[in-house]
Write a structure and sequence with these properties.
Dihydrodipicolinate Reductase, domain 2; single chain; 14 helices; nine-stranded mixed beta sheet; seven-stranded parallel beta sheet; binds NADPH dihydro-nicotinamide-adenine-dinucleotide phosphate; globular; 18 strands; about 400 residues
Length: about 400
């Protein structure tokens, strides 16, 4: 029985809180705090209707460390679940240290003024969390999150040695809108417009953004164009699995999305440098975010499925083997259950599972942890029970891409 404080009332926060309320035996009391309290209240109402559980809500600017510390001290949670934006990660970690409480997030820290995300800033908290006897769990979403757990499960049960790992992220959902991003538009566009980068033979190989394309036939979705991209779990996988020769991340994009993105980039709308407009400073990508649909509004519009998984090649009992683990999630089913589409669902459910494993002590430790460092079995078991079932399939090797 554990009290938790969830920060961030977007699509991911909404799913996590719904799923926590569905598991009252694990999460005895939930407080949802975010910058805009009305969004917390709308989520609380949906949670009440769907589960009968009452949650507390509060307004909080998590960029304010003192206010966040005071709220943690007042709520007295055993865990703070950070589902705000990557910009808040360090401030919320500081507040957790000040208040003596464990921490979990789904996306690594990113400074506002650089389109750059890496773990170095959060790994630098290792000693402080260890000395305080507290646990910080980084990246408990789907990717990062489940994809790293799939890799860890592969190493524990399916392959003695992993030689290559490919992460394939397909969103086959259609909103019917010409252009929308399925999670925070600003974070999404910063990620997609960054140069591609993958790990090969001990070094990072860089290329222009979205320049390397492959077609892959995804189960229950069909053939889709997927593009080589940089993604944050590549960094932790390369660190914790130095045996893997090549680690790549692929994401599918439709032609219409890419056409819009190209135009927006060409005219400067995705820039993150401030500029003057009618006597005030604006940041073009923040202005663009204000024009685009809120991801949390896409729930009723999105049809189709996501299919995200990992393909690992390597050796088992002296024989070459290639294994594919993946989950398929239906947008409409996710919406019916939690009021949110599948991209929020596939992130919010693993956030709830990571939180459940921490508050029940199945995952415990002092310091800063990535998903690869923890036993995959209880997490994989909970994925099957809480809406994200997965399957393992042997593939012909070598991969033809
Ligand atoms: P949204 O933009 O929908 O929601 C973010 C929420 O955080 C909003 O409610 C926002 O408030 C709130 N917020 C922003 N700044 C602050 C602040 N300073 N203090 C308090 N609250 C704040 O994003 P998503 O729900 O789509 O994503 C949430 C997180 O999940 C992001 O970090 C994203 O990168 C991550 N993510 C991870 C994935 C994974 O697989 N690992 C996949 C998808 C997302 P307001 O409404 O007032 O703006």
């Amino acid at each position: 029985m554990s009290r938790v404080l969830v920060i961030g009332a977007g699509g991911v926060g909404s799913v996590a809180v719904h799923k926590m309320a569905m598991n009252k035996d694990i999460f005895s009391h939930i407080t949802l705090a975010s910058r805009t309290k009305s969004k917390c209240d709308a989520i609380a109402e949906s949670v009440k209707q769907r589960t009968g559980v009452t949650i507390d809500t509060a307004a909080l600017d998590a960029d304010d460390v003192a206010a966040t510390t005071a709220m943690i001290q007042a709520v007295k949670p055993v865990l703070v679940v950070n589902l705000a934006l990557p910009y808040q990660d360090l401030n919320i970690m500081d507040a957790c240290l000040a208040a003596g409480v464990n921490y979990l997030d789904t996306a690594n820290y990113e400074p506002r003024d650089q389109a750059k995300f890496e773990y170095s800033w959060q790994w630098a908290y290792q000693d402080r969390f260890r000395e305080a006897g507290l646990m910080a769990l980084l990246g408990s979403g789907f990717d990062p999150g489940v994809t790293s757990v799939f890799a860890t499960y592969t190493k524990k049960h399916l392959l003695d040695r992993i030689d290559t790992l490919d992460i394939l992220d397909c969103n086959g959902g259609d909103t019917g809108l010409p252009f929308a991003t399925n999670f925070n538009p600003e974070i999404n566009l910063r990620e997609v417009t960054a140069p591609s980068r993958h790990w090969e033979n001990g070094q990072w190989i860089e290329g222009p953004a979205l320049s390397h394309k492959q077609v892959f036939d995804f189960d229950q979705v069909g053939p889709k164009n997927m593009y080589l991209m940089y993604h944050e779990e590549l960094e932790s996988l390369a660190k914790f699995y130095p045996e893997i020769n090549r680690i790549r991340f692929w994401m599918t994009f439709g032609d219409s999305y890419l056409k819009h993105l190209e135009v927006l980039e060409n005219i400067g709308m995705t820039r993150i440098e401030p500029m003057m407009f009618q006597g005030r400073e604006i940041i073009p990508i923040e202005f663009l975010k204000a024009l685009l649909p809120e991801p949390s509004s896409l729930g009723p519009l999105t049809k189709g499925k996501t299919n995200i998984g990992t393909i690992a090649t390597g050796e088992k009992d002296g024989k070459a083997r290639t294994v594919y683990i993946n989950n398929v999630c239906d947008h409409e089913e996710a919406y019916a259950e939690t009021n949110n589409q599948a991209v929020s669902y596939t992130t919010g459910v693993p956030a709830m599972i990571g939180a459940a494993l921490m508050v029940t002590g199945q995952w415990k430790g002092a310091g800063v942890f990535n998903m690869e460092q923890l036993d995959p079995d209880p997490f994989m078991d909970m994925l099957n029970k809480h809406g994200l079932p997965w399957k393992v399939q042997d593939l012909d090797a070598p991969l033809d891409f």
